[in-house]
Fold this sequence. Notes:
The chain is of the alpha/beta class and 264 residues long.
Amino acid sequence: MLKEESILFSxxxxxxxxxxxxxYTLMTVDWQQGRVVKIIEETWNTRRFFxxxxxxxxxxxxxxxxxTLDLPIHEKKNKRWRSYSIASRPDGTNVFELVIVLVDDGxxxxxxxENIKVGDEFTFRGALGVFTLxxxxxxxxxxxxxxxxxxPFRSMALDAFHKAKxxxxxxxxxxxxxxxxxxxxxxxxxxELDFPSFTYIPTLSRESWDGRTGYVHAIYKxxxxxxxxxxxxxxxxKNMIDDARxxxxxxxxxKHQIHFELYG
Length: 264
Ligand SMILES: Cc1cc2nc3c(=O)[nH]c(=O)nc-3n(C[C@H](O)[C@H](O)[C@H](O)COP(=O)(O)OP(=O)(O)OC[C@H]3O[C@@H](n4cnc5c(N)ncnc54)[C@H](O)[C@@H]3O)c2cc1C
């Protein structure tokens, strides 16, 4: 038995705690090659990468899933892996989009921003993950995120709109520091006009404007007052997710109503 197989065998015998499905799927899906076909500078520190999975004609995934890149930044395999949620919707082509923020002193993102150009190829695995919407969608969903945590929600909302999926209502509560940090702002404003089941609520924590200000937490507390059937999708970094989970538990929501994708 190979080393990886024996780890899988022992993993199958135990109940998966919190992060195990993530590790499990990372170990069981094949690697393939991708080619960068377009890069857009979305904000001062965030880029959109369009990747062609050129070994296949259709890159199939569920909105909310992610891919894992194998970057040449370390000798050990698992220290080279960085995961990114797919920001585009499954449209039947073999091109998908990632939206990546440059992290100060971040090994992977500094490599990506300094080295990856249009035409470059890299190895990736996926699509992976279980941070996806159920079918049918029977509840209102409050999507709560900051920064690049918007990626899976953009994919979900665009997919529901383009496929005219029967759904209740999506509320996208999106926090950044300034207006210039808001990703996909014009597109999501337009989507709100075109898609009656979608409400977009951007909020800024460090700038005044004609929209909401402050952190995301005040907004779902206000909107969900008296809505015991609401479901929540949280995506982003630990501090925001920890605070939201604690608040939602205090508001009386059960664990099965709160789903999250932790970036780190
Ligand atoms: C399932 C999944 C999906 C993800 N999707 C995305 C995505 O769509 N877009 C995206 O930009 N990132 C995403 N991430 C995060 C990504 O995988 C990397 O962790 C991130 O790009 C930093 O990698 P790095 O090698 O540059 O930093 P590292 O060298 O690995 O880390 C540097 C340090 O900074 C911390 N850190 C890293 N980034 C941030 C941040 N933004 N805010 C606060 N602390 C941070 C790390 O925890 C670490 O302590 C996702 C992570 C997971 C697990």
